[in-house]
Amino acid sequence: MSVPLSLWQVALAATLLLVNVALSWRLRLGLGRDIVVAGVRMVAQLLLVGLILGWVFALQHPLPVVGIGLVMTLLAGQAGVGRVRRRYARIYLDSFIAVFGSSFVLTGLTLAGVLRIHPWFEPQYAIPILGMVLGNTLTGVSLALDRFTSDVLGRRGQIEGRLALGATRWEAAHTEVASAVQTGMLPTLNSMAVMGIVSLPGMMTGQILAGASPGTAVRYQIVIMFVLAASSALGALTVVWLAFRTLFDSRDRLRAERLKEPQGGR
């Protein structure tokens, strides 16, 4: 069991934020207000999530779990497009399809096939695992989309040259597709490469703090990392394939005019 925290202990930890505010004031960074607002916002969001999860855990019914999962997926799909510099008409739908497909499929396989949770919607497992998968997948989707749309415009001449020489749309864009999927997987691969040596992941740390043995925590973390890697790859591949279908038509023509700069910048 983890050590219970009182409100004054949480308040004591919050005073550490004042160190950042003091540094910002002393160095004239102009970040003091942003630090305080971000801290207050984080506390409010986590308190709200804590109340909602407490209610869902008490109900023990699949509908609230699925409903929360869909809301989380909708927000993740929107966030996946937030940092993309060039967009097309259905980019939000493509992002949602990629995040939803990869996250729900892999979370379901993990709960039912690997961990064998019963019932399958057990919120103590379903919501945290889905949250981790969504967070990782949206990063992969965002990076892959941004890289693919940028490369399509940046290498437009080369792609159209390949098409003019008789290449199919897939042959003409294969290099850009592969590069985008690799970019989408990069954060997960980097994390896996140093995990356990440079960093201890959050799930493993949380389980140890909650009283689980290090061996059990390590096994859970290994399972989760394999799921995150698969979800990143599937999400990045899906969204790049959907973008490819929009930016290249069935007559093997590049339709770069469908890419637009978002109004007002990012």
From TrEMBL:
<feature type="transmembrane region" description="Helical">
    <location>
        <begin position="35"/>
        <end position="57"/>
    </location>
</feature>
<feature type="transmembrane region" description="Helical">
    <location>
        <begin position="6"/>
        <end position="23"/>
    </location>
</feature>
<feature type="transmembrane region" description="Helical">
    <location>
        <begin position="63"/>
        <end position="84"/>
    </location>
</feature>
<feature type="transmembrane region" description="Helical">
    <location>
        <begin position="222"/>
        <end position="244"/>
    </location>
</feature>
<keyword id="KW-0472">Membrane</keyword>
<dbReference type="Pfam" id="PF03649">
    <property type="entry name" value="UPF0014"/>
</dbReference>
<dbReference type="InterPro" id="IPR005226">
    <property type="entry name" value="UPF0014_fam"/>
</dbReference>
<keyword id="KW-0812">Transmembrane</keyword>
<comment type="similarity">
    <text>Belongs to the UPF0014 family.</text>
</comment>
<feature type="transmembrane region" description="Helical">
    <location>
        <begin position="192"/>
        <end position="210"/>
    </location>
</feature>
<keyword id="KW-1133">Transmembrane helix</keyword>
<protein>
    <submittedName>
        <fullName>Iron export permease protein FetB</fullName>
    </submittedName>
</protein>
<feature type="transmembrane region" description="Helical">
    <location>
        <begin position="125"/>
        <end position="145"/>
    </location>
</feature>
<feature type="transmembrane region" description="Helical">
    <location>
        <begin position="96"/>
        <end position="119"/>
    </location>
</feature>
